[in-house]
Specification:
The chain is an alpha+beta fold. It has four helices and 24 strands. Strand 18 and strand 19 form a beta hairpin. Helix 2 runs antiparallel to helix 3.
């Protein structure tokens, strides 16, 4: 009897162990997703202001009193056109004085050369020594140097006389002028601003989180007051440093076609073309775990087995974590419950609804 009971007990224990083994070998359900690339574009619209690429601040190169102003704000000017004029009397007198200095230096040179010729005759007749002749030769060389100096000073004076006229350095429109007859200005003081209307562009500010997705040459669309009219543009310049107050980067969007309806200072809306988009791999933040100091994800192979793979992460976006290397498109990864997995574990892939991962 006891032997029969012992055999029945052993059979029951074996059955229980077999049931536990079958339960342990059951695949673990895991939420998964198939990795895909997404177009990450710089979205949204950015408000900017129409500016001119060339905004010249011009002023006189000499100080003086303004006697004439030839243009007003808004006037179209050509290159070389007169903007304003200074009183030329002082400059003219300086030029005359410099010219007189040249004549004086030339007369002294002629006298020194004549004296040298006389001394050379006396030297050939051995009436003076060689050292005395050297003295007169030195005087001639000194007089020649003074003539050169006087001529250079006269040229500078002539240039300063020409500097009493302020001329436009480029064609454009007068945006600002601070010159009235009778006003005394210093050398280098800004008197007028000239804007080149043939090289209009829009200046905008882009957040620091998006600046890496843009580069010089990217296409853009610019709309002004009339939203139905869209103008083509491209990024011409990206500031290398962010604004210390706004922490945004200034961009210059060049307008590719000249439109007379576009005025300086107008408000513009800038959007970027899909060409500015880049292909990125974005995964839910719950899919990324750590393996030591290295970020990693669990990849599910065709045999429904989990394998830990190190990856390199990029920016954290609203859509999830960017994976820059270590993961390929169309691979399957675990998204939730990654901390319960082990290398080679058999899993049961479950694909949740998209809103669950958001």
């Amino acid at each position: 009897m006891n032997k029969t009971i012992m055999i029945a007990t052993i059979a029951l224990l074996l059955a229980a162990c077999q049931q536990q083994s079958q339960q342990a070998a059951a695949p673990r359900p895991v939420w998964v997703m198939t990795v895909g690339t997404s177009d990450h574009a710089v979205g949204g619209s950015y408000t900017g202001e129409v500016r001119s690429r060339y905004e010249s601040n011009i002023g006189f190169r000499v100080a003086g009193k303004i006697t004439e102003r030839a243009v007003n704000v808004g006037d179209q000017v050509k290159k070389g056109q007169l903007i304003a004029r200074l009183d030329p009397n002082d400059s003219r007198l300086n030029a005359q004085a410099a010219s007189a200095d040249v004549q004086t230096a030339q007369a002294n040179l002629a006298l020194a050369q004549a004296e040298l010729q006389r001394r050379q005759q006396l030297y050939r007749q051995q009436f003076i020594s060689r050292s005395a002749l050297d003295t007169y030769e030195t005087q001639v060389k000194t007089a020649q140097a003074r003539v050169t100096q006087a001529q250079s000073q006269a040229a500078v004076s002539q240039h300063q006389t020409a500097y009493t006229q302020l001329l436009a350095d480029r064609a454009g429109v007068i945006g600002m002028i601070q010159a009235e007859p009778g006003q005394v200005v210093a050398a280098g003081q800004t008197v007028a601003q000239i804007y080149d209307l043939q090289t209009l562009e829009v200046q905008i500010a882009v957040p620091e989180t998006l600046i890496d997705h843009l580069q010089v040459g990217d296409q853009a669309q610019v709309s002004l007051g009339d939203a139905s009219q869209v103008h083509a543009g491209r990024i011409r310049e990206i500031s290398p440093a962010a604004n210390s107050q706004t922490h945004a980067f200034d961009l210059r969007i060049q307008l590719l076609q000249v439109d007379p309806r576009i005025k300086l200072g107008m408000t513009a809306q800038v959007t970027f073309s899909p060409a500015s988009a880049t292909q990125k791999i974005i995964v839910p933040t719950t899919a990324v775990t750590r393996h030591g100091d290295q970020a990693a994800v669990w990849v599910i192979d065709n045999k429904q087995q989990a394998h830990l793979r190190p990856v390199t992460t990029g920016d954290l976006t609203e859509a999830g974590m960017e994976i820059t290397s270590g993961l390929q498109a169309q691979e399957t990864i675990a998204t939730i419950g990654v901390h319960t997995l082990a290398e080679g574990m058999q899993v049961q892939a479950v694909t949740p609804a998209p809103e669950v991962l958001n």
